[in-house]
């Protein structure tokens, strides 16, 4: 079934929040949010092999179903997976392809780097995130689309500034000579000590 958003050109946070609210209204326990232009891979013997997406999603769901306190779980970007030491990263940031627990109070907020903000809301709520480091997606090169133009990339400095205002003790901004900004690396993902609780 295809659902049409009520408004157009509202940005990623609007679309993501609309999906979350729709799923919650239907009394679903979880729902997936997946960007529409990914290729799916599985890391086998140190090689990324193209794989059936349904198998990957099923593995995530089966794992999550064994715990009571997973707020968010998802695949990893193949660009960053090669140096991961564990099969599953606990309380790490997840973007692009994730399973959301509809019990979370976290919302996708506009005018901010929405996925980072959403992850932090979940973790500060006391829930865990699970990032599957051998179940991967491949992100294509940027093209014109919903993530381009004034809605997102042309406003990256504003989005970074707003994220820093929401999480002042987490992120610091570095201002470059050309007027652009860069978020300084944060060690926040290492500070959440909650662990998955088995059913």
What does this structure look like?
- This protein is of the alpha+beta class and 199 residues long.
- It contains 5 helices and 9 strands.
- It has helices spanning 12-25, 53-64, 78-81, 114-124, 156-166, and strands at residues 30-34, 39-44, 47-50, 70-77, 88-90, 97-101, 128-138, 173-175, 181-183.
- Strands 1, 2, 3, 4, 5, 6 and 7 form a 7-stranded mixed beta sheet that branches. Strands 8-9 form a two-stranded antiparallel ribbon.
- It is globular and about 45 Å long.
- The two termini are 33 Å apart.
Q: What pattern of helices and strands is seen along the backbone?
A: HEEEHEHEEHEHEE
Uncertain runs are: 149-153
Strand content: 15-25%
DSSP E strands, number: 9
What value does the Rg take, in angstroms? Answer: 17 Å
Q: Give the fraction of residues assigned to helices.
A: 25-40%
Apparent shape: globular
Q: What structural class results from the helix and strand content? A: alpha+beta
Summed up, the helix count is: 5
First-to-last CA distance: 33 Å
Describe the main β-sheet briefly. Answer: 7 strands, mixed
Q: On the 0-100 scale, what is the average pLDDT? A: 90
């Amino acid at each position: 079934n295809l659902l049409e958003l009520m408004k157009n050109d509202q940005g990623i946070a609007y679309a993501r929040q609309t999906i979350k609210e729709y799923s919650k209204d239907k009394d679903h326990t979880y729902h997936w949010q997946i960007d529409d232009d990914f290729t799916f891979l599985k890391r086998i013997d140190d090689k990324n092999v193209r794989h059936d997406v349904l198998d990957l999603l099923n593995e995530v769901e089966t794992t999550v179903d064994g715990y009571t306190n997973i707020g968010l779980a998802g695949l990893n970007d193949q660009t960053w997976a090669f140096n991961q030491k564990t099969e599953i990263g606990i309380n790490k940031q997840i973007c692009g392809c994730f399973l959301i627990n509809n019990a979370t109070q976290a919302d996708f907020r506009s005018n901010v780097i929405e996925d980072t903000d959403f992850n932090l809301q979940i973790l500060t709520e006391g829930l865990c995130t699970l990032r599957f480091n051998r179940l991967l997606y491949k992100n294509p090169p940027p093209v014109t689309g919903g993530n381009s133009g004034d809605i997102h990339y042309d406003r990256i400095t504003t989005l970074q500034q707003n994220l820093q205002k929401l999480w002042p003790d987490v992120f610091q901004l570095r201002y470059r000579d050309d007027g652009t900004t860069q978020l300084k690396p944060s060690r926040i993902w290492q500070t959440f000590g909650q662990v998955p609780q088995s059913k």
